[in-house]
User: Which sequence fits this backbone?
């Protein structure tokens, strides 16, 4: 079985860190402190494609939002408009995506769509990167889980755009990784074990902080699948804290933090690519 990369359904720059993903050669980074986006690949043309940049960019809902307000993570309405109305997390699993495993740069059809030139794209990423399921990653580590067992999974944030996530599986087809599809992953959504989440600083389990999570199976696609709310509140501004040099959020938070200090945006314009969120976020 192949575990989907969590980035496919996390709203923001984040990366699954445990179990090790395709992007983490020989599981070198794993749950090391503050290493959310340090794994990845150097593409054939020399482009750096860190793990947080294998995603689906410029994807939107084609229908109504279905997620309950209790699962919301950004609440700002500048000028009375909702800038997040069509973001994929407003109806988890319903938005069309390019790849179930992510695309390097997130924009496989160009930006704007149809432009044949390579470019850095508005909203993040770059154009015409390879699909992860078709790319030959070196040193891939395989994780074996026993059917019916309770296991741990974790991810880490670089830029906290809110949203949430789910875990799914897909049985590897005869054609190999290149045959993985979104429809296959939607056939095997995983259930969370219990109602708790945790954060952990690096690999040291003694730093683990456990708290009650927010989960739902209402308004999700496929119907009845579970969705977890990103438990870390960003700053109470439209950009979430990108304009703030520290994680203390002087204007307040989007919602109450699950424990003291578990808040903020991550990197910022003063230190781009260097997150202040040094912990991993985990589930059972």
Assistant:
């Amino acid at each position: 079985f192949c575990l989907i990369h969590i980035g496919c359904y996390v709203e923001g720059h984040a990366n699954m860190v445990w179990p090790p993903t395709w992007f983490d050669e020989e599981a070198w980074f794993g749950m090391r402190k503050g290493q959310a986006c340090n794994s990845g690949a150097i593409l054939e043309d020399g482009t750096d494609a860190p793990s947080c940049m294998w995603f689906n960019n410029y994807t939107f809902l084609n229908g109504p939002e279905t997620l309950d307000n209790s699962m919301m993570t950004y609440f700002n309405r500048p000028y009375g408009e909702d800038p997040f109305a069509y973001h994929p997390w407003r109806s988890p699993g319903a938005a069309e995506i390019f790849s179930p495993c992510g695309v390097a740069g997130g924009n496989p059809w160009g930006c704007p769509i149809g432009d044949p030139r390579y470019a850095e794209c508005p909203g993040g990423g770059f154009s015409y990167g390879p699909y992860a399921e078709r790319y030959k990653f070196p040193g891939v580590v395989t994780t074996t889980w026993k059917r019916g067992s309770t296991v741990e999974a974790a991810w880490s944030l670089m830029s906290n755009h809110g949203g949430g996530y789910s875990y799914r599986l897909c049985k590897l087809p005869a054609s190999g990784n290149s045959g993985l599809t979104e429809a296959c992953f939607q056939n095997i959504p995983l259930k969370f074990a219990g109602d708790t989440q945790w954060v952990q600083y690096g690999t040291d389990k003694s730093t683990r902080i456990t708290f009650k999570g927010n989960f739902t199976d209402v308004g999700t696609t496929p119907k009845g699948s579970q969705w977890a709310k990103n438990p870390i509140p960003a700053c109470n501004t439209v950009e979430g804290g990108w304009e703030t040099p520290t994680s203390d959020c002087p204007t307040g938070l989007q919602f109450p933090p699950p424990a003291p200090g578990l808040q903020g945006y991550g990197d910022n314009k003063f230190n781009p690519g260097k997150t202040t969120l040094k912990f991993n976020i985990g589930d059972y």
Q: What stands out?
A: The two ends are 18 Å apart (CA to CA). Residues 51 and 105 are 10 Å apart (CA to CA). The chain is about 0% helix and 20% strand. The mean pLDDT is 91.
